Structure formats: C-alpha cells, structure tokens
C-alpha cells in the first residue's frame, strides 16, 4: 500500500531519487542542508521503499515553492505525483494567514507543464506575468 510520510526523507533517499531521474548531482552536504531548510518534505513509500518525494521551500507567509517533486519513471502515471502535490498544497494552505493570498510557485522540468497546469498552475509568461528566470551561482 502506498504511504505518504512527512519530514522523513533521508539524505540517502533524496540523493538516490534525484539520481533515478537524472538530475544534477549534489554533494551530501548540499542535500542535507536542502532537506533541513525545507518547510516540509513528503515522501511516497511503497513496501517501505521511497518511490517519490516533494518538498516546499519559502517564507511560509507570502510565497512557497514546490521544489524537487521527484517521481522516477517507474512510478509515473500512477497518481504518486498528484498525491504528493496535493499534500504539499494542503500544507501551504494551512500556513496561509486568514484573509491573505499566498503565492504557490514552481519551476517545472521541460515537458512536465501539462501535469502542473492540470493541477491549477499557470504557465508563464502571461499577459501580466513575465517569464520565470534563473541564475546559477558557482565557482568557475
């Protein structure tokens, strides 16, 4: 039976899931710090093995970002991503202060836009919102 667990993803599980989807390698220290600084992590487990995870980063008042929604190919199209995303959204909704609006954002991988638009996210740019942007900081 599929089980969602909150704030239990280990560094090893996180790094292994990232590797299974071909994402950039992180140092163990980066991974540890990323998990520690997350507002929440949600892991999906089947037979006690992690088959997906997601996490939220942000300030918890004005903006929260879906970060690292990772579902390896073998677990895709089984509803795992939807279950994790729904749990993350529930968490953010609980943080939202009464009478306020919270931005719930993400940057999705190329080709994954339909999944997110089906869950109510707006693709950018729009008439009022510019494109998302990124800058990588690293030593050369």
Automatic annotation (TrEMBL):
Pfam families: Acetyltransf_7. InterPro entries: Acetyltransferase_Butenolide (IPR053144), Acyl_CoA_acyltransferase (IPR016181), GNAT_dom (IPR000182). One of its GO terms (molecular function) is acyltransferase activity, transferring groups other than amino-acyl groups. Residues 2-138 form the N-acetyltransferase domain. It comes from the Bacteria. PANTHER family: FAMILY N-ACETYLTRANSFERASE, PUTATIVE (AFU_ORTHOLOGUE AFUA_6G03350)-RELATED. This is GNAT family N-acetyltransferase. It comes from Candidatus Fimimorpha faecalis.
């Amino acid at each position: 039976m599929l089980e969602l667990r909150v704030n239990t993803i280990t560094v090893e599980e996180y790094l292994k899931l990232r590797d299974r989807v071909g994402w950039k390698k992180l140092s163990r220290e980066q991974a540890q710090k990323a998990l520690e600084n997350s507002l929440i992590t949600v892991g999906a487990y089947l037979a006690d093995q992690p088959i997906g995870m997601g996490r939220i980063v942000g300030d918890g008042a004005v903006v929260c970002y879906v970060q690292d929604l990772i579902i390896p190919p073998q677990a895709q199209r089984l509803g795992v991503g939807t279950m994790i995303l729904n749990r993350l959204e529930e968490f953010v909704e609980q943080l939202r202060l009464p009478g306020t609006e919270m931005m719930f954002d993400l940057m999705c991988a190329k080709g994954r836009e339909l999944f997110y638009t089906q869950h109510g996210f707006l693709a950018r740019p729009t008439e009022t919102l510019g494109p998302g942007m990124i800058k990588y900081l690293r030593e050369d």
